Amino acid sequence: MAERQADAQLRLELGQHFMVGFDGPELTPELERYLAEYKIGNIILFKRNVQDNAQLRRLCGDIQRCVKKSTGRSALIAIDQEGGRVVRLADDAVNIPGAMAMAAAGGPELTRRAGQMTGRQLRAVGVNFDFAPDMDVNCNADNPVIGVRSYGDTPEQVSAYGAEMLRGLQEEGVLACAKHFPGHGDTSTDSHVGLPVVTKPAERLRRTELPPFVRAAEDGVAGIMTAHVIFPELEPDRLPATMSRNIITGLLRNELGYGGLVVTDCMEMAAIATYYGTARGAVSALRAGADIVLVSHTPEAAKEAIRAAEAAVLDGTISRDELHRSTDRILRTKEEYKTGEEPPAYDSAEDMAAAGELLRLSIAGYRLPGGALPELGPCPLFASGTAFRATIADNEAQQDLFFAGRAEEAMGGDSYLLPQAPSETDIENLLQAANGHSALVLGSFSGHLRPEMRKLLTRLDQVKVPVLAVAFGLPYDLGDTPPGTPGLAAWEYSDRSVEAVLAVLKGERPVTGRMPVDLG
Description:
This protein is an alpha/beta fold. It has 2 domains: 42-339, Glycoside hydrolase, family 3, N-terminal domain (TIM Barrel), CATH 3.20.20; 363-505, Glycoside hydrolase family 3 C-terminal domain (Rossmann fold, 3-Layer(aba) Sandwich), CATH 3.40.50. The protein is built from 19 helices and 14 strands. The protein has helices at 2-15, 29-37, 53-71, 99-105, 108-125, 155-171, 202-208, 211-218, 245-255, 270-273, 278-288, 299-314, 320-336, 349-362, 403-411, 424-434, 451-458, 476-479, 495-505, and strands spanning 18-20, 42-45, 76-79, 129-130, 175-181, 223-226, 261-266, 292-295, 364-366, 380-384, 414-417, 439-444, 467-471, 487-489. The strands form 2 sheets. The protein has an 8-stranded parallel beta barrel, surrounded by 6 helices. Helix 17 links the parallel strand 12 (439-444) and strand 13 (467-471). The N and C termini lie far apart (69 Å). The model has no long low-confidence stretch (mean pLDDT 96).
């Protein structure tokens, strides 16, 4: 009897150390039984869980009631609401521009306002933990997963803007989470699909990657998320940061003095699941000093991880004393942020208008003397592909979104549909077609990371009429164009960014953004 009670107490405690996800917009009886059996204390939500604000508020209320009933404590309910290309809320919610767009829009004080707006919106639907801001320094233009999710390519800029975002969130009572420690900005592999390795010397890591996290820790960020990245100079056993005691306890806790919550990135990402296994990764993360292990998708994977953690505590692999201290940290944070409170009423109209204006302010020019656009003439050719999902972290794409078609409808001229990977014939046909028009406006989306699109960008000097490049996503596309080619950076490929660019092309708005990264 005593042994069964001890096991029940251990499961109750370990449930606070896991955050899980599930499919669908409601809690089914099967899900409720699962959460109750494993005493799970925290939930992560994705787009698959969200229909609109009213439904999400009901779902969060159901989650809180279920978790409180089975654990006696309120739940941390988290979401990835960075802004721009990474948002999970529905269209009737306040969705701010992404990090790089915010850095283009103006000073850090605007980002604080954006954080406050996001915090108000999240609290109103019952979400109390935002996995934002991204405080990676995007010092590698070829980074396949961070890019515009970063505030820039210098630690000073990322520190300044990220600090204001986290401050705005936490002023509104929502926990912020700086990610991905100690830095995902110089990777050439996406940890969703592979295992990145950063071989940069420790001194350079401390000079470039670490400062934003030091700033976040000093400013009292509630959480820091670990990266599934190997740093051989910080961890000689070549374990990912998420599984490294040297990095989590040695560097983050002891050296940097961070006392808040350490949360792992999802343990079902390929960097962990493929190379180590989710359960083994979860045990290693807890042993390394993480507070909360994230298993975002599959209940069976979460169950296996919890059972593995229980066995590791019982055989001494995970220290009970350290686990107790970590549990206390989680529960204190829940009390401090009053995570079980009823969501407040919220009229979002003003904040929605402000979010739209921030995006319009972010449209930035490149090689535009005096901010003037080239003359498009009476019959311009607008060329682009349709939207697609560039990375697993991104929002689902609006696949019927076609910038060139929208531009033709709004401004006349003609439109040209490009495939995601234009062939040599596609490129030649476009260049020839452009020379039969008064100008060419080429819209690209993350072309810098796609060899075929990059090849097209480099050949725009073969067009004999005025050219304007528009980058919907990575601004590095503009740096791939021939010298002197003017451009606009729009940061995301969405309805609102297309409308913002068209307002500029029609002369209804000036170009007000600044380029926040070096394009070479």
